[in-house]
Known about the structure:
Blueprint: H1 10-21, H2 23-42, H3 49-74, H4 82-97, H5 102-106, H6 108-129, H7 134-153, H8 164-171, E1 173-174, E2 177-178, H9 179-197, H10 199-216, H11 221-247, H12 259-268, H13 280-299, H14 304-331
Helix pairs in contact: 2-13, 3-9, 3-11, 3-12, 3-13, 4-6, 4-7, 4-11, 6-7, 6-11, 8-11, 9-10, 10-11, 12-13
Amino acid sequence: MTDPAASLPIHARRANLVDKIGFSVVLLTAACIALILGGAIIYPGFLNPGYILQQLQIASFLGVIATGAMLVILLGEIDLSIPWTVTGTAIVVTSLAGSHDGLLAGLAIPLGLTVGALVGFLNGVGVAVFRVPGMVWTLAVNAMLLGATVFYTGGFKPQGAVPWLATYAAVGRTLGIPNAFLLWLALGAITLWLLHRTIYGRYLYAMGNSQRALFLAGARVRTVTLCTFVLAGTLSSLGAILLTGYTNQAYQGMGDPYLMPVIATVVVGGTSIQGGSGTYLGTFMGAVFITLLSSILAVMQMPDAARQIIFGAIILAMLLVYRWSAGRAAAK
């Protein structure tokens, strides 16, 4: 039996392939290859498998946090409490791990994840119950977390230890592959299942398109919103634990550099900032792209101001390409 697709013209088959995989995934894959090849001209080590694995390891920290951010953005909201959820979790985990109480030390990671879940619950209550826009509520929560963290540490570098499991997950390797990357792959598989094989995933996309219509259909809109923010907070804490294991410390402002890269990862990955559309594969490739871009700009030893300009310009250019592609698709 012949494949009907084989009888299509080559350009039509390519279009079908792009539609199945996703335009953002194809574009970002090509962009990542271009970055690697371009980087190899400046620094030949870019083509070294060890260097690429290191970049995937670093991308994993960003990707884990971006997974939660993507769920919230699909909902049509945004979470701006990421920076101090990450910092607060890191400080709690290291403080508990360095405790003389063996029970508290052993519970450092579960309690660290609980911090993120509680922050997510607080965010979810504000958005779902009090109906405050996510941007405003989560920004206020972030400020509260900042104040609470500075009060707890007295403004000084927190004392403590890093759990061995966090170090193993962040810098350890299995068969030569970074454990952090393997963990990210496992998380990605779960996220794909959650988005495409469960009623929660269908509700999430539907809420991003029309929350009112879903509410009138009898869905538990508040529950979906609450669960989404709790998941996002927990994943921010998981990313913080990995970062703690990678840097072997916790410090003030640890999560500050991650807010814009996380949002950029999701948006560059093709997820609509207004919610309702996007693929996790796009977010996955977005994290790899952002990491490679940051790496090549660092290798070029550009001033920070120039890096930010180039970084922003490339992101804006990709967003314009997505808009042009969406316009062409709508015109057909």
